[in-house]
Amino acid sequence: MATGTRAAALGGFTAVHAMANTDPVADTAGVVEQVHRLGRDAGHCDVFPVGAVTVGLRGERLAELGAMADSAARVRVFSDDGHCVSDPLLMRRALEYVKAFDGVIAQHAQDPRLTEGAQMNEGELSGRLGLAGWPAVAEEAIIARDCLLTAHVGSRLHVCHVSTAGSVEIVRDAKRKGWNVTAEACPHHLLLTDDLAATYDPVYKVNPPLRSTADVEALRQGLADGTIDVVATDHAPHPHEDKDYEWAAAAFGMLGLETALSIVQHTMVDTGLLDWAGVAERMSAAPARIGRLTDHGRPIEVGAPRQRGALRPVGHAGRRPRHVGQPEPQHPVRRPQAPRPGGRDLPARASDGPRRCPDLIR
Q1: For 345, which DSSP code?
Q2: 4: Cβ contacts below 8 Å, ≥ 6 apart
């Protein structure tokens, strides 16, 4: 908790949602209250626990959703992230249950049968490299099903780490129909493509996998037009002994907290797809609304809670991100200093005037 919240503060975040795939799994009121307390004691940023949808993330029976919602942690977001709630009946029951307290189910969209042993995006390159392919339809089929279930029961669905152009279109269609569906994209999926798997460098092994150039462009356009509501880091650090292996044996995941804002600047602001107000909306205001956090994501107002940071982005001549998994000096935004003890102002360094810094991620 101490290192995770310090990384969040270093990246300019004043609050995070901590996912449930911990040890022990955050599937009871006692565990989410402990996560909430440990985050408060660490003091670097606010920590809001995400509760598991199913007991032990096993997808067999619902966890204590109501008890977690009523706990001191006041959980409103539930996810088996890292695992898909693949049983449609169980997913329906979860969506129905959280309606009672205005909760939301955040789905890790990955059909487990279609991705058994999968290692990278399915395509010509996966065949050439001899790595088992991860088809786009494995994500898209779950999203389509869950959008229909959400409309059927009148609940709220949030789609985690959207990675394909087809997924963007499904979410766009659901929003067009007025269904209560939100979605997120990760910084690495906005920046990197599956051709990096040819290096066999396991830092590029993530779940869901890096996709094609067309998918990256669709994600950027979806984020720009509001189809994708949120940028979420999917921050997944691993010890060297789990990541420094050959590709097939290495763990999925890469860092994200410290580099997220620089990547969003590079891919969305510098390209003219978003202005800084749009960045604040997608990295602060929208996540707070989805998570029902009243003290975050608010505009700067007299008397309002002070949850903000200052950012001076470097100009277009700044050096570009090269290696997202391990922060390098080539990032276009210098990393903010850690906050002072007891403070919530995160001073940054560089060149362009103060900006609203994001204050919530997943």
Answers
A1: -
A2: 16, 18, 235, 237, 257
| Cα(313)–Cα(299) distance, integer angstroms | 20
Q: Tens of pLDDT along 135-170?
A: 999 999 999 999 999 999 999 999 999 999 999 999
Q: Which two tokens stand for residue 172?
A: 């766009």
Domain residue limits, the chain: 2-291
- Enter the DSSP assignment of 154: T
- Respond yes or no: is residue 173 known to be catalytic: no
CATH class in words for 2-291? alpha beta
d(CA 72, CA 156): 22
Dump pLDDT digits (tens) for 73-117.
999 999 999 999 999 999 999 999 999 999 999 999 999 999 999
CB 103 within 8 A of CB 156: yes
Could you tell me which residues are beta bridge partners of residue 159?
A: 107, 183
Residue carrying structure tokens 């602060």: 284
Low-confidence ranges of the chain (pLDDT < 50): 317-361
Catalytic pick from 46, 81, 194, 234? Answer: 234
